[in-house]
Amino acid sequence: MKLKIAVLPGDGIGPEIVDQAMKVTKAICEKFGHELEYEYAITGACAIDEVGDPYPAATHDLCMAADAVLFGAIGHPKFDNNPKATVRPEQGLLRMRKQLGLYANLRPVVTFPSLLHKSPLRLDLVEGAEFMCIRELTGGIYFGEKGRKDEGNTAFDNCVYTREEVERILKLAYEFAMKRRKKVTVVDKANVLETSRLWREIAQEIAPKYPEVETEYMFVDNAAMQIIQWPKRFDVMVTENMFGDILTDEASVISGSMGMLPSASIGIHTSVFEPIHGSYPQAAGLNIANPLATVLSAAMMFEYAFNLMEEGALIRAAVNASMDAGVVTEDIADDKSKAAKTSEVGDWLEAWIKKQ
Ligand code: IPM
Ligand code: MN
Questions:
Q1: What is the pLDDT of residue 83?
Q2: Less CB within 10 Å around the terminal CB: N or C of the chain?
Q3: Residues 61/69, Cβ–Cβ less than 8 Å
Q4: Counting beta carbons within 10 angstroms of the beta carbon of residue 344, is it exposed (0 to 12), middle (13 to 18) or buried (19 or more)?
Q5: pTM to 2 decimals?
Q6: Residue 39, number of CB atoms within 10 A of its CB
């Protein structure tokens, strides 16, 4: 098969972790006889520095022409600490999601046997926990009208959802549940927010169309507690943009490290595969960042963009083997002095895949 991918490393640790995911991607293509065509493009702070735009038109064109996008991370502290900056790296990511129509962000929360002891949660709570968080990605407070008034002394961010936006994400959640354990948890704040009441109204219309699926409604504050109190209760969790952003960072502690959680952003145009973590600027260039979330995002790319399940499975097997062999970065190493470097993890995975 011919695979055409756009590679967007972004900022901070982005280039280092994407390098490892590319080693793995190339090794898989070689092993299975796929023809890989790829091209790099800029996005984020580095694109602002180079061309003054965090998501340049040339990058968008490349993404549109590709079959899949592999994305690293974006963000830079020089913008975080400057609330007056008018152009920000994050706008690049948000525009990419919007322009590609990526309304669904699939964030699988899983545990890894060799990492169970790294979770701050008790073993019996996390062992066997496995759920899919489906985060709406192109609506809500992230994309509503925002601004200042009263000479800058009052600020507002509108949270807006249309029926169409809510329907398509909820339907997707039910379709996923049908292929899984048949339970959907709709997370909202319907006791306070009008947008949440629209979500709940629409969920109540859709739920009867999936009689085999159990529907559970949960307020987001309660969900934040349940995720760490009893994560095994969840199968498919579906929620709006910002709630999903926050809850999945929280859920990453179940796996033991932020550096382990991949994601797939799917929708209308080319899908994007990206780790859920950020650009970790403190570690940029140090060759210490955990590349596994990006490597696992590449596994999702094979599965979701190309329907190549065996390829995805081999990447997952490689990741498990590297953890069993203790070839892991310092965030998940038992003995930090013996931790592997980012590039060593990538080399090890590449060699392991070639040996199979
Ligand atoms: C994520 C990130 C982004 C988000 C930021 C970088 C804009 O936190 O992908 O979860 O909030 O969506
Ligand atoms: Mn986030």
A1: 84
A2: C
A3: no
A4: middle
A5: 0.96
A6: 11
Run of H or E including 353:
helix 342-355
Distance from residue 162's CA to the centre of ligand 2 (Å): 23
Contacts of 129 (CB under 8 A, 6+ apart): 109, 110, 111, 231, 232, 234, 254
Instruction: For residue range 122-157, list pLDDT tens digits in order.
Output: 999 999 999 999 999 999 999 999 999 999 999 999
Nearest to 263 by CA among 156, 151, 134: 134
Tokens found for residue 293: 């979330």
Nearest alpha carbon to residue 262 among 213, 232, 295: 295
pLDDT at 336: 93
First CA to last CA distance, the chain: 20
**In which residue ranges of the chain is pLDDT below 50?**
none
pLDDT at 134: 98
Nearest CA to ligand 1 atom 9: 276
pLDDT tens, 264-322? 999 999 999 999 999 999 999 999 999 999 999 999 999 999 999 999 999 999 999 99
> What is the DSSP code (8-state) at residue 302?
I
Is ligand 1 within 6 A of the CB of residue 275? no
| Architecture in CATH for domain 120-255 | 3-Layer(aba) Sandwich (3.40)
pLDDT value at position 297? 98
Would you list the domain boundaries of the chain?
Answer: 1-108+262-356, 120-255
Instruction: Indicate whether residue 278 lines ligand 1 (CB < 6 A).
Output: yes
Under CATH, to which class is 1-108+262-356 assigned? Answer: alpha beta
Helix pair 89-99, 57-65: axis angle to 10 deg:
40
Atom of ligand 1 nearest to the CA of 274: 9
Map residue 138 onto helix, strand or coil: coil
Asked whether 114 and 133 are in contact (CB, 8 A), the reply is no
